[in-house]
Amino acid sequence: DQQVKQNSPSLSVQEGRISILNCDYTNSMFDYFLWYKKYPAEGPTFLISISSIKDKNEDGRFTVFLNKSAKHLSLHIVPSQPGDSAVYFCAASGNDYKLSFGAGTTVTVRA
Amino acid sequence: SAVISQKPSRDICQRGTSLTIQCQVDSQVTMMFWYRQQPGQSLTLIATANQGSEATYESGFVIDKFPISRPNLTFSTLTVSNMSPEDSSIYLCSGRTGRNTEAFFGQGTRLTVV
């Protein structure tokens, strides 16, 4: 049972434009949400997180928005750069430290 | 955040054999986890590695197939036993120091079973 869902397997965006990645979750006990970036042959790298007590968190080019009532979060990357081309995973955790991951979205930034 | 060194980075193994993957963290961490990423799939949690006691396995994973050790707060091993081609995956270890903190990952072990 997939508790974290990323329904868009891929996203193509032009360099300099905004990338918007979406994520939905079903478990209402999740209270901490994270985004990871993964290149081939490397482990996931943490990008940004948000606690359920907030609805927005910003770090440089990355902003995460959380809509608790809709059980939905999104990651905005602006401006998109060629080095942003990677697989992005949404993850969520509750009170047991474990992370549940979405299926991932492959982002391609076109020059 | 802490750094995890995971080895080997890749291996090609014969079916029926076993492989042990090691992860060393450069600082003490509260929790350590082992994940599997099958080709084109997401990360699936295999187990939580408990310091000084038996690991806690997720549904579908058993100790006989994936024995795990965690002798202290900075080191853990995962063994993939009696391997078959279906075990070909990327195996990742992860650490986390608190609930509302990031989890950090090793670079992964790409296992191919032939």
Structure description:
The complex is a heterodimer of chains A (111) and B (114). Helices cover 0% and strands 54% of the residues of chain A. Chain A is built from no helices and eleven strands. Chain A has strands at 4-5, 10-14, 19-25, 32-38, 45-51, 56-59, 62-67, 72-77, 86-93, 100-101, 105-110. Chain B has strands spanning 4-7, 10-13, 19-25, 31-37, 43-49, 56-57, 68-72, 75-80, 89-96, 103-105, 109-113. In chain B, strands 2, 4, 5, 6, 9, 10 and 11 form a seven-stranded mixed beta sheet that branches. In chain B, strands 1-3-8-7 form a four-stranded antiparallel beta sheet, with no helix packed on it. The N and C termini of chain B lie far apart (36 Å). The model of chain B has no long low-confidence stretch (mean pLDDT 95). The chains are: A mainly beta (111), B mainly beta (114). Chain A binds chain B through residues 32, 34, 41-46, 49, 51, 89, 91, 93, 95, 97-104, and chain B through 1, 4, 6, 9, 30-31, 33, 41-45, 48, 92, 94, 96, 99-100, 102-108, 110.
